[in-house]
Amino acid sequence: MASLYWAIRENLRMSNMLGNAVYLLQRLRYIWGSEFSRKVKRASEIAEPGEGVALCVRIRDEALNLREFVEYYLAAGVRHIFFYEALSTDDFRDKLRPFVDAGVVTLIENWPHVPVSPAAEHDCVLRCIGSYEWVGFVDVDEFVVIGDNSSIGEFLRVFQLLRPHWPCIGDTMTRMGT
């Protein structure tokens, strides 16, 4: 039974027609506006522009990798990282405490929303308006690498002129082994 489920799921995922339908529904929702869109618009209208890059990360039992993750992104030019934790049983607090004390990490523990996403991402966007110019959404096992060794913020400056028309950028492909 499970293999039938995965076969159907994979066929739906790879369907161009379904992908276009989902895209159309997302665009219509954007055009008509959601409550989240209205909150972002209101907050953006009153906030001064922010500076730098922040990250939003959802975690559950990720303590083993947290120090490396935070140190990597701080070295890559990220100014602040927001961690949304739910149902962890490991020592994530101990791993993040030095970074929280240094003011470069905000830890939101026991995130109450189920599912965690998209509520965590929405909360993070609203927290970042007026404080940060960019906010990124990654998992603890994802590391953004800029090919010319510039910082993430320097890389994003290229997109500054496009922002009034295209307020976000995204990567839908992950290159493995390069």
- C-alpha-based Rg, rounded: 18 Å
Give the overall form: globular
Q: What does the largest sheet look like?
A: 4 strands, parallel
The average pLDDT value, as a whole number, equals 85
Going by CATH, the homologous superfamily of the domain at 49-162 would be: Spore Coat Polysaccharide Biosynthesis Protein SpsA, Chain A
Structural summary, described in words:
With 178 residues, this protein is an alpha/beta fold. It has a domain at 49-162: Spore Coat Polysaccharide Biosynthesis Protein SpsA, Chain A, CATH 3.90.550.10. Helix content is 45%, strand content 12%. The protein has seven helices and four strands, in the order H-H-H-E-H-E-H-E-H-E-H. It has helices at 2-13, 16-32, 35-46, 63-75, 92-101, 119-128, 152-157, and strands at residues 53-59, 80-85, 105-108, 134-137. Strand 2, helix 5 and strand 3 (105-108) form a beta-alpha-beta unit. Helix 4 (63-75) packs parallel to helix 5 (92-101). The radius of gyration is 18 Å and the shape is globular.
